[in-house]
Structure formats: C-alpha cells, structure tokens
C-alpha cells in the first residue's frame, strides 16, 4: 500500500480532531454513568462494561452485515499465521478497555480536567516512543526536536487548561488515582499502533471488532472480580445519553485504526489531544454552569493547535516520517 496522497493527509486532519472530541465526551458520559451507579469501583467497572459491551454489539453487527467487511477476518487470520501481523498486535483492545475503565473509576473523583492532564502526559510521551520504535503501520518515525516540542506543547496546554482545578483539588488521593489515566494515555498510543497494523491488513472494521472483542473479554474478567467483592450497585439510570459511550468509543477506535497510517502515532495523538482540549472547553461552558473558562483556557486550546501545526510541518519536510 503506497504512501497517502497530500489530499488524504489534509482531509484526515479534521477527522483526527473529531476522534479526540469523542474521547472527551465519552469520559464525561462514562463518568456520569459510574456516579449514577454508585461511584464505587464496581460501579466504575460496570459503566465501562456497559460502554464496551454496547460498542461490541454495534461493531459486530456492522462488520458482519457486509461481505466486503467480513472478508477482512480470514485476511487477519492468514496474516497472523504467516507473521505479517505480530500476534501481540491483536491485544490493542486491552489498552482501550483500560482507558474506558479508568474513565469510570477516576473521573467522578478527580474530574475531567485532571483526567485529561494525566492522559495527555502519558499519550504524548508514549506516542514518541511508539513512533520511534516503529510499532505502527507507517514504520519507523524517528524522534526529532520539532516532534518533541510538539508533544511538549500538548502537555503544557492541557496543564494550563486544568491548572486552577488541579490546585483546588490536589491531594494524595487524586494524585494516586491520576496514575490510572496516565497509564491509560500511554496505552492509547500502543493501541493506535497495534490497531493500525491490523487495519492495514484487514480493514478498520475488522480492526475495531478485534479491539472490542479482546477488550471486552479482559474488562469482564476484572469486572466479575470487582463485583464479587462489592456488588452494591444502584439501579440503571433512565437517561439515554448515559449509554452512548460505546458508540463514541467505536467511532474513536475506527477513526484511529483508519487514520494512524496517514500521519503516524504522534501526529494522530496530538490531533486527538487538541480535539479533547477544545471539546472539554465547550463541555465546561455548556454543561457545567458554575465553571469559568477564561483566557488561560482559550490559550491552552490554541497551544494544542500550535503543537499539531509544528508536528505537521515537521512531517511535511523531508521523508523522515514517510
């Protein structure tokens, strides 16, 4: 498969921003669902299972409904047998499951702001390492100063956007819980790389299906253990929007699998971060009536865009990323 054309590269940029917006909204939705179910560990994991399970049902129906999409399944099996796709690449769904579980377990306590800071820090640093190691379908994308600067812009931007809330809510408990989204953010880069490898052979729908199947199995195993320890859950809430996390997750995973080969893991990650930050600002303005988004928040959103532009500029010069 040849290198993506200039038109494809340009057209893919807004789609990567949309993928980030989906993650921001998903974190809000899954956090609200976990709170409605009781706010406990088992409630958080239950919210994650519901979100991942609904996504699994949808992506299964869509993938199996078309012979063209189903054709990717034997292609993936063959690629796994002959080593074209390493077997570890099919485990990307575990990273996605961990992200959704982290949303349910931490957002209600530490807030979306701190969650975003931790995810961003993990995702930016891990994306550099994943690209440099050549784990993604685009191969080796060597580290460079512009790529490092672009990643730093993303971390600084989200830290600025969440700064006031971090100062107000910081404690050993929140710092400890922030480790989960930090690790989840690092896993997002690995997930994008692995899903991209699978998608390059079998297509984005089969890659998404594999992602949901593997992630759901891992998530249910942990959920059953948590439920055996603490099964005190509140009844399921009646608000329909609390159950759209799976749809949002499916959209994010499909877009990531389809687009990661276009610009590489780092640029995909930076665009996702920019989409997350900008959407989080909108959520604060629209959903949280008592919140205040000032010049610092707006500047943070601008910084994420600057970081993306730096990475895209570096990608467009030379052939280091091609």
TrEMBL record:
PANTHER family attached to this UniProt entry: INNER MEMBRANE PROTEIN YDCZ (PTHR34821)
Record keywords, A-Z: Membrane, Transmembrane, Transmembrane helix
Protein name in the entry: DMT family transporter
Superkingdom of source: Bacteria
Transmembrane parts of this sequence: 7-25, 45-67, 88-118, 170-192, 212-229, 241-260, 266-286, 293-313
Species this chain originates from: Nocardioides ginsengisoli
Pfam families attached to this UniProt entry: DMT_YdcZ (PF04657)
Coiled-coil residues: none
